[in-house]
Amino acid sequence: MAALNNLTEHLEAFVDVTRSPTHHAESLKAIATSLEKGVLSINQLVVEMDMYLTTTDDVVRARGILLLAEMLDYLKSKPLDNAVVHSLVGFFTAKLAEWRSVRGALSGCLALIKRKGVAGVVTAVDAEAVAKSMAQSIQVQSLALYDRKLCFELLECLLEQYPEAMINLGDLMVYATCEAIDGEKDPPCLMIAFHVVELLARLFPSPSGPVASEASDLFEFISCYFPLHYTHTKGDEASIPREDLSRGLSLAISSTPFFEPYAIPLLLEKLSSSLPVAKVDSLKCLKDCAVNYGVSRMKKHYKYLWPALKDALYASTKTDLSFGLESLTSPGFGMGEIHREAVNLLQRLVKQDISFLGLVVEDIRVNMVFDTISRYSRYEEMLDTSKLEVLVVSQILSVSARSSVESCNIIFETFFSRLMNTLGIVEKTSTGDLVHNEISTVSTRLYHGGLHLCIELLTTSKDLIPSSEECTSTPESAQQSWCSIVSRFSASLIEAFTSAVQSSNDDCSADAYLGVKGLLAMGMFRGGSSPVSRSEFEKILTTLTSIITANSAKTVKWELALKALVCMGSFIDRYSESEKAMSYMAIVVENLVSLVRSSHCSLPHPMILEATSEVCSTRPTYVEKMVEGFEEAFCSSFSDFCVNGNFKSIENCSQLLECVTNKLLPRLTEIDGLEKSLVHFAISMWNQIESSVVFSYDFNGREFVEAAMKTMGEIVGVASVDSQNSIIQKAYNVISSSTLPAMESIPLTVAALEGLQRDLSTRDELILSLFASVIIGASPKASIPDVKSLVHLFLVSFLKGYIRAAQALGSMINKLGTGSGGTNISTDCSLEEACDIIFHESDSSKTICGSETFLGKICLGFCGSLDHQTRAITGLAWIGKGLLMRGDKRVNEIALVLMECLKSTNSSGNALHPSTMKHAADAFLTLMSDSEVCLNRKFHAVIRPLYKQRFFSITVPILESLIVNSQTPLSRTMLHVALAHVVSNVPVTVILDNTKKLLPVILEGLSVLSVDSVHKETLFSLLLVLSGTLTDIKGQQSVSDNAHRIIECLVKLTSYPHLMVVRETAIQCLATLLELPHGRIYPFRREVLQAVTKALDDPKRRVREEAIKCRQAWTSISSRSTPF
Amino acid sequence: MVSGLINENPIVYEIKERRDVRAYSSNTDELSVDAIDQLEVFDILFVRLSNSKALSHHIRDIKDPEHPYSLEQLKVLTEDSVEVDDTKSHVRVTFTPTVEHCSMATIIGLCVRVKLMRSLPSRYKIDIRVAPGTHATEAAVNKQLNDKERVAAALENPNLVEMVDECLSPSFE
Prior knowledge:
- The structure holds 2 protein chains of 2 kinds.
- By secondary structure, chain A is mainly α.
- Chain A starts with a helix and ends in a 7-residue tail after the last helix.
- Helix content of chain B is 33%, strand content 9%.
- Chain B has 6 helices and 3 strands; from the N terminus they run ααββαβααα.
- In chain B, a hairpin with a 4-residue loop joins strand 1 and strand 2 (90-95).
- In chain B, helix 3 runs parallel beside helix 4 (138-146) and helix 3 packs across helix 6 (158-168).
- The radius of gyration of chain B is 17 Å and the shape is globular.
- The relative contact order of chain B is 0.16.
- Chain A binds chain B through residues 1058-1060, 1093, 1096-1097, 1099-1102, 1104-1105, 1108-1109, 1111-1112, 1115-1116, 1120, 1123-1124, and chain B through 22, 24, 26-27, 30, 32-34, 36, 40, 43-44, 47-48, 114, 117-123, 155, 158, 161-162, 164-165, 168-169.
- Chain A: It comes from Brassica carinata.
- Chain A: Residues 46-313 form the MMS19 N-terminal domain.
- Chain A: One of its GO terms (cellular component) is nucleus.
- Chain A: Residues 653-1073 form the MMS19 C-terminal domain.
């Protein structure tokens, strides 16, 4: 009873139109749940609602019916009694006639009709009754938008679910649809309406059926929408996009062949319009029609269709054919949408009916091209009209040829020999030799237009060769007559293309382009039935390779040939053509690799390397071969340098290494097996260095060492742990055989270091740098032998000025296991022990790493020379970075030492040298910034999250207090530099949390740093931090409080002479400040405007542009009386 | 003031593609100087000038602007109509009213002048003129636009200033 009481309440709530929609939805929901739970049956509901459904109050009755309909919609998947459904549908059908409650009636019918697969569906007889009632009593176009949509949905549903019943109704449904669509303007409704037409067409396919007899009327109603055009595009995002609707219309138009007599003329007329949208739509629609109307009906329109299509193609083609590198594998000219659709249509028509091709073949315009082609030899000389002719005809022919094997045969039979004749290319005789007669001497006549045509045809036809599987199923037949035509000409064609390439000179890229493209087309026929024989294929390869090897400068021709070879290589790999792969290997790969090996050839070394690496990366086997070649080349050049002092060889070596780093390493994931070969390469580098004991000549530059370090580090970085171990072991052996271990015994005292004046030998330096790179790249899991002495070695060598050693030490410290619980069991030294060695104290054995340590003392200038001091600071920074990233506490002590160095005097009262302070300030950049060369993800660094934040919170307060107490201007500047490094490298959110505290310091920093041009980069990064705080809501309050100081500072920076970006950013910041409360900034307008006006005359355009915007913005807040 | 639109159906031209000759290559060199050139002045004029507002006095009354075109599309101003000499600090802008009796010519000219005054360094002398033979009262308009006193006086008229500001305010299209 309670449920029923509630029900009445809910019913009242829903029926009452004065209540809010949320109220309505709630009561609806409540009733639906009780129905679903079975507390209330639908019968009960109807009985209960009796009064609402039959009352004479129209509004209440409409609401009541709507409620019942909504309920049925909720219960779509709940089984109902058949009798109930029958009576309900009868009720709603009857109500359709009553306009006041039409929405409820429609929803009710729709909800019932939609029931599918559950107990209680509407019977066919009832559905028929619904349709009849709807057709007779509803005037769709007089209804509101939502109701119209319901009508169309109901129609759609009826046609989809009760096709038999609808067929019984026959004419009535077609009339009803026509009437409903007439005048509809809303996209969602139209979308459904178009589908309804499609369904009708499917339902009545017979030529004597109602659709056939009403075709003209029905078509009239839908064709008036073509081509679709939206008049109101804005504010209607939820609506259906134009493309979808246009697709729906196209499907409706093409739905039945009975529309054909009306549709095709209309579409052809629209195709001739000048509106691009109309053209595209009619081409798309014509394609759909061609598919659905069938060949026999389309046939009678061919004679109108072909010229229209041709015109569309002519009108949409541009004449600027590109002879560039990028168009080697594409058509070479831009394709608009119209063009694309026209091409699709043409292809469809030819594919569907070969007789359409007759029109193409007999077309005068097409044929004329073959007669006029020989009028011009160069493309640039051609008139625009003849360029257009050539391009369009080549498109038409290639598209038609692509459609089917049959069409391809016809095209080749009709045109190819003619084309060959015009070009002076002769046939192969039955014996296989070329006919050598008078004509062949003329074969050097090259007509660009003709060549283009020829290449287009060849390129398309290659897609028609069936792949090997298909080949076995369909017997080799005479079907492929085009193949035999091509093979008859292939030898001379290749010759013609070759001569085109060879005759080309630098100022004309067209010759080279067409030649290479032709060769590429000839080389891309796949499979056994290829019209190009193996020997001919090899000839193509030889020609292209010779172009690459013969040119001594990087010309267009060279690049084209290289790209063609790469294309062919990847083509061979894709279709796994083993025979061709062998030829490719023998001719291209081996040739190039042998060029890399031999140090003497006309081609510049970088070009050989580029060509080889590009060509070889198309297939794993080639890569292997190439890396082998590289190895050999490296070894021979290196020993050539060591023995003969040939500087050219060492230059080659560094170029080779650069090629490995830049070209091969980035593609590691793409090429299988590359890693293994590269590791082998790295080991043989070590072998080579080991075996060349004596360097009779000194290096004349750091280039080689740099390149070697980079390559070595990156190879180790990408290698697996096992390979890393083997490289490390090898490298360690080399180290221990050198004179370097001697350094390990040097005690860490100043006297000993002073005594070690002599620099390392060149070889030792190379070995040390390479070894450091190996250590930098190694992962934490790799095992490093004899860590203790290595730590010592690196320590001594960075004090001697080898920064790489400091970086290696940092990396090592970063990755070492943490003693007993360490992850790495194979290392014999834990982090603690390593730190012991580094920070060993001069007097006691306590391990802290503050200023009492040996390194700390050097840093602070208590002992050692200035050189030692700066080196120690740099080294300490790298070690600190290693510790910082792994989250080790000892970094705090290091930071303290570094900050100590920034004070003007050390604790014993001696003044610190300016360069010491500068290095100490830069050390903070090393600590905070992300490094490219070491300690990053690529080199497997151990990185604890938020390490920057932690360092920030420790150092910033100390730096701030030091700034306050700083004694000399220099020290103050340096402290600001250090602070700027810390602040600008921390994530911006951290800054925003501390804006209040930081803003005054940042502003002071900006003014201090702007004094000297040395600090311009630091100044800029600090300015960026400031600009970050200005735009954020979090920083707004403190920005507003400091507005006067910020503006003062920024105004100064607008005339900063040393860096344009600083001026630009300062002006942008000024513009941003306008977001502050008017009262805060208004007093400064005069000052700002003055500064910005000055900036209008800035030497840099970008600054001026910003100044204009900023000035405009600031002017608008000042009073009207100052227009300028 | 005229209440209707003066030229109800203007010819709209396609906008010429901007030549992108300056790829900001000089950015790395701090000392090099980018001289103010024709294109820059042209850009200055086109950052903000939009005809939909310039031509209609009753801007607030118009919900759906009849001319949503820029001065560039109407060929009132073209790149070639701007002459700049940076060394002599002189710029001359020649504009072409859409119709001969366009009473908006002075307003457009005034807008152009104010825009340039606000955007170019103060060392510049600015000349604005109507293209010869394109306006009925060409001489009068030219004289008015280049008369310092009259321009200053015009800008003391709050209504006029408001209108100019309206033209120059950023249009969100």
